[in-house]
Amino acid sequence: MTPRFDAIGLAVADMAASLAFYRILGLDIPAEADTQPHAEAALPGGLRLMWDAAETPPAGEPGRLVPAFLCDNPAEVDALYEKLTEAGVRGFKEPWDAFWGQRYATVLDPDGNNVGLFAPLTG
To answer: Which domains, from first to last, does the chain contain?
Structure first.
């Protein structure tokens, strides 16, 4: 069980505006993503940038940027979430099956920043 840093998530108040901005910077994001609550783009080197429509905290507050760690399978997401919370890490959202096809959970780092844990629901 070795989670791998895989993605950076952004909580955004206006999905279409955010995606338009990143398209200008050269990211390939399909137009239909503008109306979805979740979008992703592959980055050079294998990382991904993800957007989630959410009520965002003010600039400078924790929670706007979410590093995400890929687990081997959905059971590992559950086990890692449990291991972290048992070690005193604050859980933010318990593991759940996301509509975009991932088992997902969120914990808070010591500064209150969201950290995502995820795995594909199917192999």
So the answer is: 4-120 (3.10.180.10)
